[in-house]
Amino acid sequence: MILSNYHSHFKLDDGCGELEEYADRAIERGLSVIGISPHAPLCYRNDWSLPEPALGEYLSLIRDLKDRYKDKIEICTGLEIDYIPGSMGPADKKYADIGLEYRIGSVHSIHDPDTGEDLSVDGPVEIMEQLLEQTFGGSIKPLVKKYFELEIGMLEAGGFDILGHCDLVKKRNVGNRFFDQNEDWYRREALTMLEAAASKDIVIEVNTGGLSRKATTEVYPSEWMLERCLELKIPLTLSSDAHNPDHIDYYFEESLELLKAAGYGEIYFFSKGKWQSQPII
Ligand SMILES: [Zn+2]
Ligand SMILES: [Zn+2]
User: Fold this and answer.
1) How many angstroms does the Cα of residue 172 sit away from the middle of ligand 1?
2) What is the pLDDT at residue 61?
3) Is residue 91 very low, low, confident or very high in pLDDT (cuts 50, 70, 90)?
4) Residues 49-70: what's their mean pLDDT?
5) How far is the CA of 38 from the centre of ligand 2 (A)?
């Protein structure tokens, strides 16, 4: 079967290593197509996105890489773009004509209108706690609700192909530190988001990045959500959110088994500008 990964970062954003190392490792591990997807420059100060001047540098590096590797592996030009209502999103016109082959739409942070801060659910647990206390007065339900509402807002605005780590809000929830995914209110919020996703022409990624970075004990989205994705006929692709070339196919075999166990017979890959399905074998 064709193995692929469309979610990887590198040294110009918050990953490590050169683009060549991701391509070389992908070839070694038997992948047929990879996409690179650094974080698009953000509208607030941070230490994880491409700095604004580096976007052009990335686009020029990947053009060169595609050319040099064209006989060895297919390389696609992507970008992981944050949705911050009123400030930026994957549908922004500026992403339309810079040579991207696909876009990942992701929500990493929640904006606090009182302090003006954007606090990430993807960062250290202390930042999640700060977000909870400072922006939501210690109430987890409105925080989770807001997270999924932002994803629904992004789905409505469109402009992307892959919905990135769609339940990232659970990243720092190991041991049910903040909430229990089995509770009805949590399931309702997550399912409302999945229903919105099912009505759009997008693919959801099974993202193993929480596991490779030892933050979560499961993939995004959680297994119970994968079962709902199947009922809702949402196409899935598999990606590692690699921040290190060694993680280019992290937990792929296990994830394919997990998908089979959830009842999936097929998975999608993107090649030569289009999505195609293939049986999971
Ligand atoms: Zn991300
Ligand atoms: Zn990422």
Assistant:
1) 14
2) 98
3) very high
4) 98
5) 7
Could you give the number of structural domains in the chain? 1
| 115 within some domain | no
Helices within the chain (DSSP H only): 19-28, 54-68, 125-130, 136, 140-157, 184-198, 209-212, 223-231, 252-261
For range 95-100, the mean pLDDT: 96
Q: Describe the crossing of helices 184-198 and 140-157 by its angle, rounded to 10 degrees.
A: 0
Ligand 1 centroid distance, CA of 164 (Å): 6
Residue 243 CA to ligand 2 centre (angstroms): 8
Ligand 1 geometric centre to CA of 180 (Å):
22
Nearest ligand, CA 37: 2
Residue 241 counted as domain residue:
yes
Q: Which ligand has an atom closest to residue 164 CA?
A: 1
Alpha carbon of 218 to those of 17, 208, 210, 236: distances in Å? Answer: 25, 8, 7, 16
CATH label of the domain that carries residue 225? 3.20.20.140
269-281 tens-digit pLDDT: 999 999 999 999 8
Assess if residue 128 is contained within a domain. no
Q: Which two tokens stand for residue 23?
A: 């391509």
Domain of 189 in residue numbering reads as 4-107+148-279
Q: Is the pTM of this model over 0.90?
A: yes
Cα–Cα distance measured from residue 281 to residue 233, given in angstroms and rounded to the nearest whole number: 19
Report the pLDDT value the prediction gives residue 232, as an integer from 0 to 100: 98
| Nearest ligand to the CA atom of 108 | 1
Q: Residue 21 falls within a domain, yes or no?
A: yes
pLDDT level of residue 266 (50, 70, 90 thresholds):
very high
Q: Which amino acid does the sequence have at 125?
A: V
Distance 230 CA to ligand 2 centre (A): 24
* 221-244 residue pLDDT tens: 999 999 999 999 999 999 999 999
CB 7, CB 164: distance < 8 Å: yes
Helix (H, G, I), strand (E, B) or coil at 185: helix
